[in-house]
């Protein structure tokens, strides 16, 4: 199956089915990662070399297995499609974000806090309506990059093995990449590898957001505000996304009991419920744009 058709098939499966309800490969992978972390980082005493070893054991065998299966003539096409389907999180992003916007719209702040808590790692118990909307909008913009566009990028670049390597690496970063006493050394490799894999996709996403929103403002926010953010990839994505939407994001947030003063992003009013949906529309529109470019490229190169 051609790259264009397999990409369209994977995106369509995600749109129609969403995440599997019974079992997901990443859940099993998460259990494997937990066991490896217990083995290589007992009591948080693991060194950087231990984190590298654990990362290699978690990611490389599965990536090689998928690469071999994708070469089997009888079902290699199915491996390609399923690899992209399991790696994508577009449908899931909407399923998590829309209930937050709906709860805010109905004035149910307690439910909105609970729902946005499923999307973010910050403490949501004390958020007001604007804080919930800000957290939800930020999560859509950032996770749109990590869970949607970066997966598409690596699939287009290298097919099933590349998207599997990316998704597993991104999962390990989410589990091990914290700057805490426990993971400061052990999680260093997972964080750095994920930063490297997301470097180019994040900037393409920032450009995509800018093109589909308030372009001049988005580009200015990207240029001026992104360098102030502590993440080299989230900065461009969220600054450009906030500018594209014409809202103000960033500011203080409570992570794991600690107050973090984050730089301001974007320009304009504080976000509201509808801005969560506008951010979703930005992600969905970006996916359609990428697919249109891929189809045109396929037709031209045929």
TrEMBL record:
Keywords: Cell membrane, Cobalamin biosynthesis, Membrane, Transmembrane, Transmembrane helix. Pathway: Cofactor biosynthesis; adenosylcobalamin biosynthesis. It is found in: Cell membrane. It is a multi-pass membrane protein. Pfam families: CobD_Cbib. It comes from the Bacteria. The keyword Transmembrane helix applies. The chain crosses the membrane at residues 52-70, 77-94, 147-166, 279-300. InterPro entries: Cobalamin_biosynth_CobD/CbiB. Converts cobyric acid to cobinamide by the addition of aminopropanol on the F carboxylic group. Belongs to the CobD/CbiB family. HAMAP family: CobD_CbiB. This is Cobalamin biosynthesis protein CobD. It comes from Pseudomonas cuatrocienegasensis.
